[in-house]
Amino acid sequence: MPRETVLTNARIVLGDDVVSGSVLIRDGLIADISNGPAHGEDFEGDYLIPGLVELHTDHLEGHYAPRPKVRWNPIAAVLAHDAQVATAGITTVFDALRVGLDTDSDITHDEIRSLADAIEDSVRADRVRADHFIHLRCEVSAPDCLEGFALFDGDSRVRLASLMDHAPGQRQFVRLEAYSMYYQGKLKMSDEAFREFCIRRVAESETNSPMHRAAISAACLERGIVLASHDDATAEHVAEAVAQGIRVAEFPTTAAAAEASKAAGMGVLMGAPNVMRGGSHSGNVSARTLAESGTLDILSSDYIPFSLIQSAFFLGEAVEAISLPQAVAMVSRNPAEAVGLTDRGEIAVGKRGDLVRVRLDSHVPVVRSVWREGRRVA
User: Fold this and answer.
1) Please, which residues have CB within 8 angstroms of residue 86's CB and are 6 or more apart in sequence?
2) What is the pLDDT of residues 209-234, one digit of tens each?
3) Cα(57)–Cα(260) distance, rounded to whole angstroms?
4) Phi/psi zone of residue 132: left (φ > 0), alpha (ψ -120 to 50 degrees), beta?
5) What is the DSSP string of 22-53?
6) CA distance linking residue 126 with residue 172, whole number of Å
7) Domain holding 123: CATH number?
8) Domain that holds residue 49
9) What's the confidence (pLDDT) of residue 231?
10) Which of 10, 25, 317, 370 is found 20 to 30 A from 98 (Cα to Cα)?
11) pLDDT, tens digit, for every residue of 342-351?
12) What single-letter DSSP state applies at residue 152?
């Protein structure tokens, strides 16, 4: 017997319209979309949207290492993270794991690998609610970047890798004041220690970044791993990304870099917290500005899982040029397409039954139910 679920009396957010009606899910796939009521779960007029697709969240590391020198069981950390993303409406998540160790964390590469093993073991054991993939955040300025990257040779869960360089005076941290606020305060360094730290980080970037970018981009292109740039600020950065086969421009820091990335055919990704706060915490370009100009393609929750669904409904209401279907596409269809997951991200016949029931309350989206492949997971 086929496994069927009927969701009815819903405001269904399609690719280009919002319609009232019903959706039939059969054996994990959307089998029918119809106008009018049917016998099934009554949505009472709530929205039905596609399951969200999250490409870049650093959230897992916080569950594993909630305090300096404190470590949690890796599987328990994965389950806590998974529960939070699923109840935020995220049905596909790319867990961002660092390779190339910066000094803002005491996590080792072996621990990062153990987190990846916990993700993969939990997927195999059907412990998780969302569909999990791995995104490697490659700090190309770090001397040990390739060493960490090598731990993921042959890992089929790795579907995305971003090339990032957090040395001062460029990209995210053009202004030394912003770099000082983030690093000096976080690491509690004296002024002299911070000065030496900056000198060392700049030297590491100049020595390591070019060869690490070249090596990792070549390896990813060979293995079919989608590449993302990170914090591009200039036309030169974008040209370098194009030459390396980059498909996603993560968090461009200037409007010029975002526009050049879009013109080059990349998906432009910005942070949902940036949308909700009205600006970047580093003082860079506002995601709202890019949304209003038509430059923004993809949103990521980054460090607040719930911000993803919140920002979609916010943009659909607050930005005149963006309809609700267009805003929802930024958190579902567009990220899915950017990484080649063409089986999800849209409410359409034949797509996966990854769906979210949402009710707006005081302009805040309330996630009431979540289905992944037709199975209720939250």
Assistant:
1) 129, 130, 370, 372, 377, 378
2) 899 999 999 999 999 999 999 889 88
3) 25
4) beta
5) EEEEETTEEEEEEES--SSEE-TT-EEEEPEE
6) 38
7) 3.20.20.140
8) 4-376
9) 85
10) 370
11) 999 999 999 9
12) T
Task: Report helix, strand or coil for 193.
Answer: helix
pLDDT digits (tens, 9 = 90+) for 151-183: 999 999 999 999 998 676 555 555 555 555 556
- Give the position of tokens 């360094």: 189
Give yes or no for a contact between 143 and 208, defined as CB atoms under 8 angstroms apart: yes
Q: What is the 3 state secondary structure string of 321-350?
A: CCCHHHHHHCCCHHHHHHCCCCCCCCCCCC
Rounded to whole angstroms, the Cα distance separating 255 from 295 reads: 9
**Length of the chain, in residues:** 378
**Alpha-carbon separation of residue 117 from 36, 124, 160, 334 (angstroms):** 46, 11, 17, 28
Angle between helices 74-87 and 109-124 (to 10 degrees): 60
Q: Any idea what DSSP says for residue 173? A: B
Sole residue written with tokens 């993700």: 119
Best CA proximity match to 132, nearest among 176, 69, 77: 77
Ramachandran bin of 155, using left for φ above 0, alpha for ψ from -120 to 50, beta for the remaining angles: beta
25, 1 contact by CB (below 8 A): no
Neighbours of 213 (CB within 10 A): 23
Q: What's the predicted TM-score (pTM) here?
A: 0.91
Largest CA distance in the chain: 71
Q: What is the edge-to-edge ordering of all strands in the sheet holding 267-271?
A: 52-57, 90-99, 131-139, 158-164, 226-230, 248-250, 267-271, 298-300
